[in-house]
Amino acid sequence: MHSKGKDHRRTRVANAYFSLFMAVGNVLGYATGAYSGWYKIFPFTLNSSCDINCANLKAAFLIDVIFITCTTYISVTAIHEQPITSVHDAINQESSHPQEAFFWEMFGTFKFLPRPVWLILFVTSLTWIGWFPFILFDTDWMGREIYGGDPIGDQKYSEGVRMGAFGLMLNSVILGITSVLMENLCRRWGSGFIWGISNIIMFLCFLAMLVLSFVASKTDYDSDGLPPNGIVIAALVIFAILGMPLAVTYSVPYALVSSRIESLGLGQGLSMGVLNVSIVLPQVVVSLGSGPWDALFGGGNSPALAVAAVAAFASGLVAILAIPRSRPEKSKIRQ
């Protein structure tokens, strides 16, 4: 029991570090989107057919290509993997079905999953039904509903999108801080409880976005067309607070599935594949349905955010009430 608890703790810590370094990358990436002067640093991006907003976007893509090239080179040269030809025989000896496709093998594991794992997959799906509308429409919501801009050639919309990128940078800062604290939080109150509370916080933030959209629609803006500072600050605070539940989403579900699927002997890679299915399928549903759903209610992002709020609240309740609150590893060791 001591070694198993230690392994689960290491899994949580590893996922927390993964979330932390993802936050560092997000801060730099969103800072790139929030900066409006890239066309001055890369003047060749500005021409008669590409205005300042286009040039800034083009420069951001150029920086993206440079970083991807560098990271790809580091990955290829620094990681020394064993050639597939040298391990082929070993795989054939260990597996009675060496030609079985991983895709079918992964879906075949569903019939072996116990009820706690199904609960985790269900909560994960609801969580991502909540997250994906925000991921799709966060900067568009800021530019369209807070700044009152039009996506087609409107400077107010562009300023709103940059402010949304700044809000996402703040979101990533909070994500990184929460990731550092994740292990202590889960050890004190239990991973399932922390997950549920974080989803309730996510629900409250989405509800606040809906309220802020309504307030902005009823507010008279200044002569320059920009929203009042209070509304912008409130939107930025919401974006920042959402970094806390996002850190939990990036780490806790993986640790929970890993700890509960270990006894089945299916392998950690397969368990992560099963969890990713419960993440991808909701994203497909939301991406296909959010556009027609928004159009059904007259456009805007509020209908999709309303669905996100309901899904976040439901997932929080299920996580708190149905996922067992594991006791801290220290108490298990003493027993």
Feature tags:
335 residues; single chain; mainly alpha; 13 helices
Structural overview:
The structure is a single chain. The protein is mostly helical and 335 residues long. It has one domain (8-92, 102-323): Growth Hormone, Chain: A (Up-down Bundle), CATH 1.20.1250. The protein is built from 13 helices and no strands. Helix 1 packs antiparallel against helix 7 (155-189), helix 6 (115-146) packs antiparallel against helix 10 (243-261) and helix 10 (243-261) crosses helix 11 (268-296). The model is unreliable at 86-101 and 327-335 (pLDDT under 50).
Q: What about the largest sheet?
A: none
What is the string of helix and strand elements?
A: HHHHHHHHHHHHH
Strand content: under 5%
Helix content: over 70%
* CATH architectural grouping: Up-down Bundle
Number of strands: 0
How many distinct helices?
13
